[in-house]
Amino acid sequence: MSLLSRPARITAVAAGLALIAAGCGSSENTTTPPAAGGSASVSAECQPFAEYGSFAGKTVSIYSPIRDTEADLFQEAWAPFAKCTGMKITYEGTGEFEAQIQVRSDAGNPPDIAIFPQPGLLERFAKAGKLKPASAKVKELTDTNWSPDWAKYATVDNVFYGAPLGASVKSFVWYSPKMFAEKGWKIPTTWDELMTLTDTIAATGIKPWCAGIESGDATGWPATDWIEDIILRDLGPEEYDNWVAHKLAFNDPKVAAAVDKVGAILKNDKYVNGGYGPVKSISSTAFQEGGVPITEGKCALHRQASFYANFWPEGTVVGEQDDVYAFYLPGNDASKKPVLGAGEFVAAFADRPEVQAVQAYLAGTDFPNRRMKLATYVSANKGVDLANAQNPIDKLSMEILQDPATIFRFDGSDLMPAAVGAGTFWKGMTDWINGKDTKSTLDFIDASWPKS
Fold first, then answer.
1. How many Cβ atoms are within 10 Å of 270's Cβ, its own excluded?
2. Which of 73, 140, 247, 345 is positioned for an S-S bond with 242, CB 3.0–4.6 A?
3. Signal sequence: where (predicted)?
4. Are 156 and 25 members of one domain?
């Protein structure tokens, strides 16, 4: 899961948020946007949006798991587009997206556009005939701005349904550079060094690790990220792919070994849960709050994606010599650095011209650059200006995503059939944290894999 597929630090659901954008012909701005295909003059402010046409009086609805502060930032970023095209964009963010998008679709009340954090969930709706193929313009922009690997995640049975949006790099461990400097701790470059550091920290009386996996209907997903990162490192990219495709069973001994490796940290009361309590407190701690004890000196390490830069308490400075920073989650071999990541995809349940215009705008380069200028944000769009990055982790993440030499794998649970990736895998890992043994957990998940 990516940042934009998860709630922001304030946990209240920001449902029904609406961006009511005044048309360019309003009393505040008398510029009249050109009719679609027209040639009327436009202001300098609206020039970047002239190609999309005029949609005065039209409304496009967007439904998404992006909520709270992140939802506000999204709406602020696309406000000039909405204003200059004359359309109204209504936005609703929810922490129960994975369940409610199905409910809405089944009830015949789908949104015009949905922002899917899981390609596996998008695939379910595409195969059911609910989604509209993306326009030629969206496909062209995607081919220009993203690598082929990103485009394939929203392609089902050779039909392309939507461009990527935000992205994240998952393979990070957050820490306090100031705490490390004071204690004389060094950044580990291998798993063995990481475990030695963990023991060193524990010996000081500080719980080394803090974590939280509570996320409403999506509770459990941060634990699945841990498993994916270790499988990618210990078994390699090819075997990771086999596991995601269920060519390697969930209850295979190699998978069980990876889960137990994670358990050596997350199910060890000696190591967790700094600032919160025993192991079981992980399942009741909101993921947004999971790393906060680092800023209080009650925890030293928090494994979480690049997007966690959004969730530190106000005033926290992200930087190599500052309050918090992140290092690469090491594997057994320091020379091998595969990267786990995720993202969102913009797919549509309607193909009206105004809906296609919104999809095209989000697939271009203007939106991600505007969004980056507002606050921390990561995109794999090749048209983003890295100078707009709001912190060094954002910049590093985009450099990693855009480097052709990077061995990148998409979040496994997001690629799996939704019943598993957004269902039994999440539930299984929550039960595992709460005391269920590894074998029973993996047998449960494996048995849930669709038979056809």
1. 12
2. 247
3. 1-26
4. yes
Maximum CA pair distance of the chain? 71
Quote the CA–CA distance of 212 and 194 in Å, as a whole number.
20
- CA 309, CA 304: separation in Å to the nearest integer? 10
Strand intervals (E) in 41-161: 59-64, 88-93, 113-116, 155-156, 159-160
Distant-in-sequence, close-in-space partners of 292: CB < 8 Å, separation ≥ 6: 210, 275, 311, 312, 313
Domain presence at residue 321:
yes
Query: What percent of the chain stands above pLDDT 90?
Result: 83
Residue 149 near residue 128 (C-beta atoms within 8 A): no
Q: Quick one: 228 and 252 in the same domain?
A: yes
pLDDT in tens, 278-314: 999 999 999 999 999 999 999 999 999 999 998 999 9
As given in the structure block, the two tokens for residue 133 are: 């193929």
Structural domains of the chain, count: 2
Residues 223 and 86 in one domain: no
Of 91, 94, 126, 96, the C-alpha closest to 111 is 91
pLDDT digits (tens, 9 = 90+) for 206-227: 999 999 999 988 999 999 999 9
In one-letter notation, the amino acid at residue 357 is A
Cα 330 from chain centre = 21
- pTM > 0.85: no
CATH of the domain at 100: 3.40.190.10
For 191-203, the pLDDT digits (tens) are: 999 999 999 999 9
Range of the domain at 43: 3-167+342-399
Question: How far apart are alpha carbons 65 and 344 in whole angstroms?
Answer: 10
- Determine, yes or no, domain membership for 408: no
What's the CA gap between 297 and 176, in Å, rounded?
9
Q: Are 326 and 349 in a shared domain?
A: no
- The region that residue 444 occupies, defined by phi over 0 for left and psi between -120 and 50 for alpha, beta otherwise, is alpha
Same domain flag for 49 and 185:
no
Task: Confirm if 167 and 301 have CB atoms less than 8 A apart.
Answer: no
Rounded CA separation 145/153 (Å):
15
- CB-facing half-sphere around the CA of 441: CA atoms within 13 A: 25
